[in-house]
Specification:
five-stranded antiparallel beta sheet, alpha+beta, about 550 residues, about 35% strand, about 20% helix
Length: about 550
């Protein structure tokens, strides 16, 4: 067997990249920061068609946002909900923290049609058809239901259908400057642009033009409220867009940080010369459903798709990149937008049919000496975007002579979705096996190496079991099981003996320092293979506790 690279070097690269990724760390939304599009794009973790997420939006203090989702009309109406998001300044991400529902909610009541803050810690959420307002109060433990008001009168004109007319709203920033947002559909353009004018007495000047790659003129017809603004954030709900609705949030930090789009890298907010970053082509397989959005970050969501999809992505990596790091914009460093000269960015996603993907892999392998594939399978709480970025980063750090690839199963990329991720990762085994078969038998690769992390080990080990039963000879070379979120006893007794014939070398990396697996152990009531010194037939176990990833 020709080694992939120095095994020691691979351990360091994988450990720096993966094992320190905490189950409770790196909070994400369905689409999280880095803010490499003109706006943050919010969808709920349990998005369903017809939910009308974004029916109303309220900013309830700096960094707190409530979104109404009033439910569907028609044949299958449902009770609505309201979602609370909090802005994490370290990650530059809006994090879904709470879902509020009416305690006596009825199907079709349109709970969430209006959301309003009354006093600092009191929230009114209206169920429009039930003509009832529900009162929630916030205390040390979070938001809780307190009361309801029947037949409450509306406070002002809260329903604004923009449609074919122009609407505008004025607001002040934290420094007392007055702005005016103008919502006017341009029938000559499919791209929606929202002018933000600075008003100084009788002088009105254009301060910014807010837009987003996915924000279309047609979306404006579904915007039923004026944008919400609290001095720093401006939020616009579009409840009738495909997939159940969405909310766009722009940030004001001295100036609007979402003025324009870089023409060379779609969606990027800062320009950089090609000498300042490298491009890495990464092949992918996924069974995530497409969102229908154009932005690479949002091309695939957290819902299950019907079949295996394959393709390629391009990821940019700055020449200033430090091995093991996943450079992203940082509020603490006053970085409010993604810059390819400083950050790792998913540039594009290109789906291919199977024959096209196989031909592209064969052509790419022909240009390498090793004719090897390095496949990464991610764990819990990871988006398609971050899986692509991580796969590219690992291959770049290894200076890998071969083609990198990743498999992205439909993780919700939310800390609140551990149980659903457990179901989805096992649902993906069938499609993962098909992608592994494509790599091992059709791509023309002479070596296929697999790196699985955390919960992703569940799908990988099950697929390897099936390969071991189907083929007498190993179909894979080095398989690295990094921090497996798998029951330690089941792994040693059942899994390890069953997968040992699927690869030439299988290595299990464990760490007793892994906080994520400590949490998982507490949830499951049993040690995990990734934080135990497992002795198992056919598997080499390496204890990486205390390993310095900067080595």
């Amino acid at each position: 067997m020709r080694p992939l690279v120095s095994l020691h070097r691979l351990v360091r690269a994988v450990w720096a990249a993966l094992l320190l990724t905490s189950l409770a760390g790196a909070p994400t939304l369905a689409q999280e920061a880095p803010a490499d599009t003109a706006a943050d794009w919010l969808v709920p973790s349990d998005a369903v068609p017809g939910a009308r997420f974004g029916a109303d939006v309220a900013l309830i203090g700096r960094g707190h946002l409530v979104v109404g989702a009033s439910g569907a009309h028609g044949e299958r109406p449902r009770t609505g909900a309201a979602y609370v998001f909090t802005y994490d300044r370290d990650r530059l991400a809006w994090i879904e923290t709470t879902k509020l529902t009416a305690p006596d909610g009825l199907s079709g009541d349109e709970f969430g049609a209006r959301v309003r803050l009354h006093a600092t810690d009191t929230l009114h959420i209206e169920a429009a058809r039930a003509r009832t307002r529900y009162v929630f109060v916030r205390d040390a433990s979070g938001w809780r239901y307190a009361d309801q008001i029947g037949n409450a009168p509306e406070d002002g004109d809260l329903t604004v259908h923009v449609g074919d007319v122009t609407a505008s709203t004025s607001f002040e920033d934290l420094d007392g400057r007055t702005y005016q947002a103008v919502l006017s559909p341009d029938r000559d353009s499919t791209q929606l642009v929202i002018p933000i004018n600075l008003v100084e007495g009788e002088d009105v000047t254009l301060a910014a033009s807010l837009t987003d790659p996915d924000l279309q003129t047609a979306d404006l017809a579904s915007a039923q409220r004026f944008p919400a603004f609290d001095g720093r954030y401006l939020a616009l709900g579009t409840p009738d867009v495909d997939g159940g609705g969405a909310v766009y949030v722009w940030t004001l930090a001295g100036r609007w940080i979402s003025d324009d789009l870089a023409p060379t890298l779609p969606g990027l907010q800062a320009k950089a010369g090609p000498e300042e970053y490298a491009e890495v082509e990464v092949f992918y397989g996924t069974d995530r459903a497409r969102t229908g959005r154009r932005s690479p970050r949002r091309f695939y969501g957290g819902q299950r798709g019907g079949d295996l999809e394959v393709g390629t992505t391009t990821v940019t990596i700055p020449t200033s990149h430090k091995p093991g790091a996943m450079e992203s914009p940082s509020w603490m460093r006053l970085q409010f937008r993604a810059n390819p000269a400083k950050h790792i960015i998913l540039k594009d996603v290109r789906p291919l049919d199977t024959d096209e993907a196989v031909a592209a892999m064969q052509a790419a392998l022909d240009s390498t000496r090793s004719r090897a594939v390095l496949l990464y399978v991610h764990g819990f709480n990871v988006s398609f975007e971050d899986a692509a970025r991580r796969a590219a980063q690992m291959a770049y750090d290894l200076d890998f002579d071969g083609i990198p690839a990743f498999y992205s199963w439909p993780s919700d990329a939310s800390l609140l979705s551990y149980l659903s991720d457990e179901n989805d990762v096992m649902w993906s085994v069938f499609h993962l096996k098909a992608f592994l078969r494509l790599l091992a038998l059709q791509s023309g690769a002479e070596e296929v190496h697999v790196v699985a992390h955390s919960m992703g080990n569940r799908a990988v080990t099950q697929a390897l079991r099936e390969f071991a039963c189907e083929f007498k000879a190993p179909q894979f070379n080095q398989v690295i099981l990094a921090a497996p979120d798998v029951d330690a006893e089941i792994f040693a007794r059942d899994i390890a003996p069953a997968i040992s014939g699927a690869a030439e070398q299988i290595t299990l990396y464990t760490s007793q320092d892994d906080t994520a697996l400590k949490v998982s152990q507490a949830l499951h009531g049993a040690p995990r293979a990734g934080n135990s010194l497992v002795t198992a037939m056919g598997v080499t176990t390496i204890d990486a506790s205390g390993l310095d990833p900067s080595l």
